[in-house]
UniProtKB/TrEMBL annotation:
Organism of this sequence: Bradyrhizobium lablabi
Domain of life of the native organism: Bacteria
Any Pfam family matching the protein: adh_short
PANTHER family: 3-OXOACYL-(ACYL-CARRIER-PROTEIN) REDUCTASE, 3-OXOACYL-[ACYL-CARRIER-PROTEIN] REDUCTASE FABG
TM spans (from-to): none
Name of the featured protein: 3-hydroxybutyrate dehydrogenase
InterPro entries: 3-OHbutyrate_DH (IPR011294), NAD(P)-bd_dom_sf (IPR036291), Sc_DH/Rdtase_CS (IPR020904), SDR (IPR050259), SDR_fam (IPR002347)
Sequence similarity: Belongs to the short-chain dehydrogenases/reductases (SDR) family.
UniProt xrefs under PROSITE patterns: ADH_SHORT (PS00061)
Length: 260
């Protein structure tokens, strides 16, 4: 389906981004992966995905908290492949603290990576998508782009911003072959969430299994984690012709979280 197309997936060295990168490679896309991690582990990952799906896999260490790096990531992909057809804005961070104790430096980092970088990569990638009249922009927001939880003010603000930005881009590209959508996962068991499980276990003196069950029980009625593979399958669907008229939406994948 994506044969000879090129996908850039930010924050794809782990977690959800990696699940989406694998799914797009399985659909035939060449990949630019990005994120932090050990050089040897990232090289191994590149080789493994390339061999499994017969695609080219390049890597950029762009730090998306820096505006020049966010723009540079798209320039790097253009130099490497000559085109960017699919842009998945996935990189994101969390910081948990009450508003009145929230450090400005953490607020700025969350907004820079979760929201401003989404604007910068989209702005850089759009002109050549418009020139070919085809593109898919997929922003990984969160259920926290649609509702709030306590102690996550910066994250909730950034993800609501991503959902709003998604709608704006969808309107501006509505008469073209480009779509722009947001995916809004509930709990997914990745390093980002494991930190929150560890904090809950320490606070309430729970073992890891009890802490996981408590975290899910508070929010996610299915009592199951959403998986990176499920999110990858949804991203691949959004890239398909069947999704050509699907634009400007925020799709929850949350085991019923938002139905309460
Ligand atoms: P993760 O911590 O496993 O992965 C984050 C990825 O982003 C990693 O590859 C990391 O190296 C990269 N990254 C972090 N800071 C970066 C920076 N400054 N520049 C470039 N790359 C950077 O997290 P995850 O849970 O897979 O989260 C991915 C996205 O999904 C985030 O936007 C997150 O907000 C969102 N999300 C996660 C959950 C969840 O339950 N895990 C739920 C809803 C939304």
């Amino acid at each position: 389906m994506l044969k000879s197309k090129v996908a850039v997936v930010t924050g794809s060295t782990s977690g959800i981004g990696l699940g989406i990168a694998r799914a797009l490679a399985a659909a035939g896309a060449h990949l630019m992966i990005n994120g932090f991690g050990e050089a040897a582990a990232i090289d191994k990952l590149r080789g493994e995905i390339a061999a499994a799906h017969g695609v080219r896999v390049a890597f950029s260490a762009a730090d998306l908290s820096k505006p020049a790096d966010a723009t540079g990531l798209i320039e790097h992909a253009m130099r490497e492949f000559g085109r960017v057809d699919v842009l998945v804005n996935n990189a994101g961070i969390q910081h948990v603290a009450p508003v009145h104790e929230f450090p400005l430096e953490r607020w700025d980092a969350v907004i820079a990576i979760n929201l401003t970088a989404v604007f910068l990569t989209t702005r850089a990638a759009l002109p050549q998508m418009l020139a070919r009249d085809w593109g898919r922009i997929i922003n990984i927001a969160s259920v926290h782009g649609l509702v709030a939880s306590v102690d996550k003010s910066a994250y909730v603000a950034s993800k609501h911003g991503v959902v709003g930005f998604t709608k704006g881009v969808a309107l501006e590209t509505a008469t073209t072959g480009i779509t722009c959508n947001a995916i809004c996962p509930g709990w997914v068991l990745t390093p980002l969430v494991q930190k929150q499980i560890d904090a809950l276990a320490a606070r309430d003196k729970l073992d890891p299994e009890e802490a996981r069950a408590k975290l899910l029980g508070e929010k996610q009625p299915s009592l199951e984690f959403t998986t990176p593979e499920e999110l990858g399958a949804l991203a691949a669907f959004l890239c398909s012709d069947a999704a050509a008229q699907l634009s400007g939406v925020a799709l929850p994948v949350d085991g019923g979280w938002l139905a309460r």
